[in-house]
Amino acid sequence: MAIQKVDYPLPDYFERTSKSLEWMKKAKEVMPGGVTANIKSFDPYPIVMEKGNGAHLTDVNGNEYIDYLLAYGALMLGHGHEKITEAITKQLHQNGTCLFGTPHELEYTFGKKIQQHYPSMELLRYTNSGTEATLLALRLAYAYTGKYKIAKFEGHYHGGYNEVLVSVSPPLNEAGEELNPNSVIESKGVPEKEAENTIILPFNELEACEAILRRHQHDLAAVMIEPVQGGFIPATEKFIKGLREITKELGILLIFDEVKTGFRVAIGGAQQLYNVKPDITALGKVIGGGFPIGIVGGREEIMLESSPRRGADVFDSSQSKKSKSKDVLFHSGTYNGHPMILAAGLATVEVLEEKIEDVFKNTAFLKQQLEQLFKRYKIGMKAIGIGSIFSVVLTNKENIRNYRDLQQTDLSLRKEIDLHLLNEGIYTKPLNRYSLSTAHGIKEIDATIKAYERVLSKVCGGHH
């Protein structure tokens, strides 16, 4: 079925979300562009939310949405889950404070729970975000290896700092050869030298990766990877196991960035799915239960680089220093291991231990229903993803293996469908992946399919 050109769905959008537009105009008086994180912005303007409950969001106009963004995957129990509310209330009442600024029991209790599901994390440290977690992972790799270059994959995102804001979504005319990609700086304010220090690898291309890694082996501290790119394009088993063998042979640390995939593709993350043990793992999102957190863990001898027992750090003003601060890996943070957040995280994991398979089952059902619906309308589509995450990819290609494959799909039609869906009460940021929670049941899935059917009928001019 040929897709008919339809009017871009903006008139309905402006009418339904008029108060969001008013709010965004005011917000620009306070924040650049009206947002405090660029990721929250999209054209023509983002929707401003007022309430959340379970699988649903309500905007400032009173419109209700089924939420598939879920704070970019963080809210795996949905909005306002009673177990999380109970946990943080109990922590406050029992401890009498939301923050000690000292060691406390929950640091141990929660850490043991994480190690239970991620045995590769022999020792771990808490941070305040996934970005901080990957940042610490790299510092640990530099300290342990004594090398100061890293390799990352084209199309993979690891946070908003200089070393990794390279080739996240590069223009294809600048990206170089598919099997030997260029390092493309992706932000103003990032020094050009980062393009020299960050080597770019092609995802799911083992032979090409091996050639690049062998060429740079004496300079590379680590390879950092999203084992499932963007949370929804999985590494092949051959690729991820081959990468583990090559990095081990070359003395390059392998870092799994499981901020998106931790507790979402399996309770033990992608490393459980693939049965691959990375040297260092970064976690975030789901494990905070909606609060900011990150965790870095890995092999004991690597993690001990951050131990204060190694010597004096920058805050040690003692006159009898036995070592210089530059000899010690610095890691600190006022809010690291925040008791309220660890209480929320522990409650989240305990619920998921019972409910995660239900979320996976519902996700698989939604994917299947969507693929059948698109087939009826003769639009090539694959719902690509594992566990509780997927993306609607408009393509007739058999396999989507990496960033470049994704760029060859129909992104403009996907964006148009997404904008129509916002008008139908289905929320995700246009072009983003879908995440499900324990609050997404058959009722929400049925409503989503019906909304999609109305949208596809419009996009296809009423015929299928």
Automatic annotation (TrEMBL):
The keyword DNA-binding does not apply. Transmembrane segments: none annotated. CDD domains: OAT_like (cd00610). Keywords: Aminotransferase, Pyridoxal phosphate, Transferase. One of its GO terms (molecular function) is pyridoxal phosphate binding. SUPFAM superfamilies: PLP-dependent transferases. It comes from the Bacteria. Its cofactor is pyridoxal 5'-phosphate. The keyword Hydrolase does not apply. Gene3D superfamilies: Aspartate Aminotransferase, domain 1, Type I PLP-dependent aspartate aminotransferase-like (Major domain). Belongs to the class-III pyridoxal-phosphate-dependent aminotransferase family. This is Aspartate aminotransferase family protein.
